[in-house]
Structures are given as structure tokens and as C-alpha cells.
Amino acid sequence: MVDPRWRTVLTVTPYIALGMLIAFSLGVEWGAWSRLVPTLVLCAAVAVWMLVMRTLPTPWRDRPASIAVFMVVMIALNLALVLLDSWFGFLTVATFMFSYSIIQWPWQLLAVSATAAVAGVAQSSSLWEHPGNLLGILAVILLNIVIMCGLSWGLELAGRQMSLAATSTERARLAREIHDTLAQGFAGIVTQLQAAEQASDESERTRHTDAALALARDGLAEARRSVQALRPAALDAVRLPDALRNVARAWSARTGIPIDVRISGDAGALRTETEVALLRTAQEALANVEKHAGARHVTLRLRVDARGCRLEVRDDGRGFDPADETTRHEHTASSPHAEASSHPETSSHPETGGYGLTAMRERVEAVAGSLVVESHPGAGTAIRVEVPA
Q1: Are strands 259-264 and 298-305 parallel, antiparallel or unpaired?
Q2: DSSP label at 255?
Q3: Distance (Å, whole) CA 303 – CA 114
Q4: Is 58 helix (H, G, I), strand (E, B) or coil?
Q5: What angle in degrees, to the nearest 10, is found between the helix axes of 92-102 and 108-123?
Q6: 370-375 and 308-315 as β-strands: parallel, antiparallel, unpaired?
Q7: Domain finish residue from 123, 156, 181
Q8: Count of domains forming the chain
Q9: pLDDT, tens only, 298-323
Q10: Which domain holds residue 291?
Q11: What is the pLDDT of residues 322-375, one digit of tens each?
Q12: Rounded to 10 degrees, what is the CA torsion of 297, 245, 356, 329?
């Protein structure tokens, strides 16, 4: 997943590299129209391709198939430019950036290897004049592939180590937080209550019980503050729209199920509690689709306006009958693990069962919202959340 702070750099750099190469080509080949015109046409094709497939917020931009097509065409255009003018090997900087940032490991290695081969062709352009230099050309290309794939592997390991380190740091912070606040508060309450039991008169007993009550209230306030501070990691550096896109992109890349994310309105004014509830609901709904729905396509919509916000996750999977209480209760009674082995949507009614839907409903109601489940056998399922302004 790309760090949101680098998103602008990753968006702008390919255009800057392409612009500099176009300027260089114009300066070197001005007048040699037979070479310059095809070069400019290919450069225009690269710019349009990047604009349409990666820069514009198109609904298909983050689908795995679209990313694969984008990279194949991008590498092919880069190779065509290199075959015309070897200095377009510098354009592989942009192609490498796309390979490292939008393709999940280990599929990333395919794009990196192909891009490295294009860079190797550019670097060995002076050897192509003599057929006897074939081994040298292959050596240059292979060296590029080994180095860049090694870099890809190193970045993957570094990312995993950073993730583990961040997790360990957060656990240590939470342990300190609990020890310094809740644990000490509970210890104080126990001490005061024990003192109250041993008090010699009513006034002293009252003083100790009042102190215990005050500590309990302080501990409750501290617990609420700590829970509210536990924002999902997906919301650490971005607001809800980008967090939903990131979650959807990662989910689609993992499951291979295309997901269409549509977001409208300004979500900047949403409260933290609302953002967390909507993000967690979307994650739970997508988890249900992945495990049970058998869907071929999913749509995630977020609309924010003056009346509030509305989130919908809709799939085209097998669906179920929300009114079929008999089947649901029989299935739940037949096995203590029924919920884990069945579709939460088929084993639970939004009002009566199924921890997944129950948890979603409770989370949404905590921010004064409402949750509705719509489904029909063979017609998919929609989870709809509405939170008033």
C-alpha cells in the first residue's frame, strides 16, 4: 500500500520524467521528422495512457485486471520508445515506480523484471550493431533483472519488518497506557475498599468508599478516552474516502473480485467516531462477501451531503432470504460453530442473530445511525448504513 504522503510524488514524477525526455528529443532530433514524429506520438500515447488509467479517478483504476493491462501496455510503450531512442531508458524510472507502488507482492516481480529488461535493452543499445554481442546484451539485461528484483525483495522485507516493529511499539504503548492508568486506578479502588472494610467508624468508611467511587469514575473516563484514541490504522494518515479506497484496493487485490468504489460529497466534516464506524462496517461487509457470497463484482458507495452520510456495500453473489427465520434457527441450533461455517447473512437476521451483522448494527447505532440489509436468493446482498448529519 502506498503511503498517502508519497501519492503526489508518485503521480507527478512520471509526467516530469516524460516531459524532460520529450524536451531532450526535440532538442536533439529537431528536423529529423522521420524519427521525431513517431517518438512524439508514442510519448503522447504514454501520457494519455497514464492519465486515463492511473491519474483520473476512473471506476476501473484499481481493479487487478486494469492494473495488469496498464502495466503491460506501459512497458510495451516504454520498450517501443527505447527501440527508437535509447535515452528513453530513463522512462523506466516511472515504470519502476508504478511496479513498486500499485502491484502486490509477489506479482510485483513480473512487472519489475519486464521493466528491468527494457532498461537493459536501453543500456546495451550500443551492442546491438554486432550480432556477436548477443551474450553481452543478455548479460546486461539479466544483471538489471537480478538487481531490480533484489531491490523489490529487499523493500518487501523492509516493509514487513517495519510493520512488525510498528505493531510491537503499539503493543508496548498500550501496555504502558493500561498500566499507568487503568491498572493503577483499579489498584487504588481495591486499596480504598479494603480500607473501608477495616474502618473504625462510619465517617472513615464513607471517606474511603467515596475515594473508591471517584477512582472508578476517573478510570471509566480514562477507558473511554483510550478507546476513542484507537483509530483504525487505515485512518491514521488519510480521511475516510481515501481509507475506503485503500481498503477496497487491498481487498480486491487479495480476493481477485473487482470492486467499484464511488464516493461523492465532502467527508471532511465527519466526526472521528463516524469515520471509524463506517470504515469498520465496510471492512466487515467485504469480509462477508469474501467468505460467503460467491460474488463476481462488488460496489462500494459513500455519499455525504447536508442530511448526513450513506454507505452501501452491494454484491452480486448468491444472496439469501432475510425472512427465512426457520432455516436460520435450525442451522444455528444444529452446530455450535454454525456462525463460523455459514454465511453471516444466511445464518443471521439483522435483528436477531449473527455476530457480524450484530456488531455492525451496534457500531452504527453508537453513532446514531441505522443499518439495513437487503437480499434475495440469487440476487446478491446490499448492506446499507445511514448516519444523520
Answers
A1: parallel
A2: H
A3: 40
A4: coil
A5: 170
A6: unpaired
A7: 123
A8: 2
A9: 999 999 888 889 999 999 988 877 76
A10: 233-388
A11: 766 333 433 333 333 333 333 333 333 333 334 567 778 888 888 888 999 888
A12: -20
